Each structure stands twice: as structure tokens, then as C-alpha cells.
Amino acid sequence: MNVRVLPGELAGTVVAPSSKSEAHRLLICAAFAPGTTDIACTTTSDDIDATIRCLEALGARIARTRVGFRVRPVPGTSASDNVPEPAPDALLDCGESGSTLRFLLPVVAALGRGARLAMAGRLPQRPLSPLYEELEGGGVELGPQGTSPLTVSGRLRPGRFELPGDVSSQYVSGLLMAAPLLGAPVEVVVAEPIESRPYIDLTVSALAQFGVNVSEAPCPAGDGRPARSFVVSPGGLSSPGVVSVGGDWSGAAFWLAAGALSAHGVEVSGLDLSSAQGDRQVLAALALLGARVLRGHEGAACLRDRLRGRTLSVASCPDLVPPLAAVAALAEGTTRITGAARLRLKESDRLATVSAAVNALGGRARVVGDDLVIEGVETLSGGVVDAAGDHRIAMMAAVLATRCSGPTTIVGAECVSKSYPAFFEDLSSLGGICEKEA
Predict the structure, then answer these.
(1) Which terminus of the chain has fewer Cβ atoms in its 10 Å neighbourhood, N or C?
(2) 3-state secondary structure (DSSP) of residue 429
């Protein structure tokens, strides 16, 4: 599906979608906690649906309710033993969800019943090392990397696992969520510097809601470098009965960026200003770029002021690059986005596709090493942007399209369903003019 977006300033208020980062973690915990858990989650997406589909394949029963999901755990999970008995050799369809794959791979290994994890799109080519090697070292047999479905057999042994902190926090989170299923203490050592650290904190928070304590302390890594030790105490998960998924700062960031380009501003409600989500740093980043940022009790707003280029590090919040790039494209001077090497391993090579999208609309962007450099222009012309199968490229292009002098066509815009299926409906509610083309 292509979407044609016409120029026109956005303004008004939109409700943030539910955070898929939080939903993944809470759904997985609930699937292995005794009893029924109700999860308040106002919206879903392809990635959330992928995690639900995989948990159901393992034997959990997950029903959509008026306010979210009701999760009945995998059979065998009880208050007396808390030992789940998932379906043996289950086929788990991860779709294109990297979070689903990286979280459930160690979980499946901890269950010890075997499984096959199927992947779509670019996901089979996205790396699994060094998580792959740590699982093999823990007694798990895995099919070759890059194959789909990826076969898993054997049971993961508890003990010490060691990972670098500059590859993917999802590997750390997956091991932490697998730990309560192993029945013995588990230590995950993460070498510093730890990038995307807020996402590890999000996992620790989810586990805490289900009664699992994770302690943290400094320690040396195997090679002597400084590291952080995360120790998961033995004992299973316990359902709190009801949990809530917060608003998604990653999706909200696009509307806040649109507000930074609007004289009237855009407000996003349903956001927790104290959330563990790392992408709430968007407010500080937009303020550094010169936008006027307003914080409220239940959300935030941005509106245009004098936008100026800055040097911004995204080491802890790489998903913010597309919305920040949209603002930088129309800011005075040069913006340099650093700490962005891992963007090459997203749904697309996001350094290349962000740059290509900005340039396709008449902007000036280039990749320099692992940095993205954007020289702001006064006006953008519009044009054709290939979303490259990447939901965040499609959303960035739509925000920029509203500030162009001519129309913009986004090719493959249906990919927004990965994280934000209602994105274009919300764009219209803010005054955006868009037409879907078959």
C-alpha cells in the first residue's frame, strides 16, 4: 500500500498507542505465572500479536478483552510447582518481530521442550550473536543462524552468562526473563558501556511486577573490563492479577516531532513522564534542538520555536533517530547524530534509509561512518519515499511530508502496522491530509 500525504501543518491532541516494549515483557511474564493475569493494553500491533501467537503456540491462552488481554498461563504452571509444561517442539511464528525472537529464544531454551522459531522479512538476517553462543555454551542445541525456522533443543543450564553491552539489550532481557524458569540462581554479566540501558530497566521492572527480584552490582567481565552483574534470585513468577501497559514513547515521538515543526503544536496524552522507557528522552532531545517542550500530568506537548542543529547521542535510544531526523531536516545549521551504529541492524539499515528519505524530499543528509549528519534546509519539496519495509521510516516520512511544499508518496506504508496500525488515522485526526492507494 502506498500513502499520499499532502502539505499541511499538524495540530491538536492524540492519545499515545500502547507500548509494545512493555507489552512484550508483561505478556511473557504472564504466560508463565500461576493464575490468570489481566493486562490493560488499549492497542495492539503486528509485533505484539507475534508474541501472543508464539505464547499461544507454547500453550498459553490469551483472549482479547475490552481493555486489553486476559492471559491464562502455559499448562503445568501452578502455585505449587511453577513448572510449565509447554507443547513439545512447538512452531513459534515470530513474524518480523526482533523482540519476540530475542526474548523467546532463551525462554524456549529454558523450558527444555524444543521448539522451532519461524521468521519473516529481514529478521532471519538480523544477528543473534553473541546470545546464540551463550545459549550453546549453556547446553542448548541450535540450528544454523540465518535459517528459518530456527530449531532449538536441549535445556538451558542455570549459571553465569556474559554479554557485551554494545550489541543488543534484547539479548540481556531475554536471558533475564528466562531465568525464573530455571529454578536456580542466574547471573547475567553485561560489559560496559551498556547501550539501550533503559530497556534492561524495563525488563527488571516487568519481572518485579511478577515477584522476581533482580539485583545489580558492578563486577569485572571475563576479560577484566568493567561490567554490571544482574542476578536473578531463584523462585518462580507470581501473577499480580492485573498489570497495565503504558503509553508508547517511541510512537509518541513522531507526534512530538511534528509538534516541534508546528506553530500550534501537538500534544500527546497517555504518557508516563516517569516511565522506564528510554524513548522518553525525546523531550530533552527536542528541547536541545530548540523546540518548546511542555510537560503535563498525563502527557507532553511540543511546538515550534527557533530550531537549531545540535550534536545528539542516541546510544541509549536509537529508535528516536527517525523523528529527530525529521526535525533536524528543517532546523537551522547542522545536526550530527552519534552512537547510531546499531541502526544498521534494524528492520532496514536505518542510517541509510533515514538519509535516503530526507534526501528524497529535498533535504540534505549523509552518513559519515556510524553517524548521521543532517544540514537543515528552509523548505522541503516533497517526492517519493520508499519505506523499505521499516515502520519508523514510513512514520518519519509522513511527518516530514506535512511540511513539504508539494505532495509526498510513501511506498510500502502498510509497514506501520508493525508498531502503530492506526498511525495514518491519527495523522488525519491532527489535520493531516492523506490518501491510501492500493
Answers:
(1) C
(2) helix
Q: What digits encode the pLDDT tens for the residues 314-365? A: 988 999 999 999 999 999 999 999 998 888 878 889 999 999 999 999 999 9
The DSSP call for residue 370 is: T
Class at the top of the CATH hierarchy for domain 2-16+247-437 = alpha beta
With contact defined as beta carbons under 8 Å apart, do 278 and 317 qualify?
yes
C-alpha pair distances (Å), 204 with each of 200, 213, 241: 6, 8, 18
Count of CA atoms in the C-beta half-sphere (13 A) of 382: 14
pLDDT tens readout for residues 227-261: 999 999 888 899 999 999 999 999 999 999 999 99
Domain ranges of the chain: 2-16+247-437, 20-244
Which residues have a catalytic role annotated? 319
Cell of 429: 485526526
The DSSP-derived string for 31-70 is: HTSSS-EEEE-S---HHHHHHHHHHHHHT-EEEE-SSEEE
Strands (E), 270-313: 292-296, 299-303, 311-313
Examine domains 2-16+247-437 and 20-244 and report if their fold is the same. yes
CATH class of 20-244: alpha beta
Q: How far is CA 168 from CA 67, 266, 341, 388, in A?
A: 32, 32, 11, 22
Return d(Cα 176, Cα 156) in angstroms, integer.
Answer: 13
pTM for the full model? Answer: 0.95
209's enclosing H/E stretch is helix 197-209
| Phi, psi angle pair for 117, to nearest 5° | -110, 110
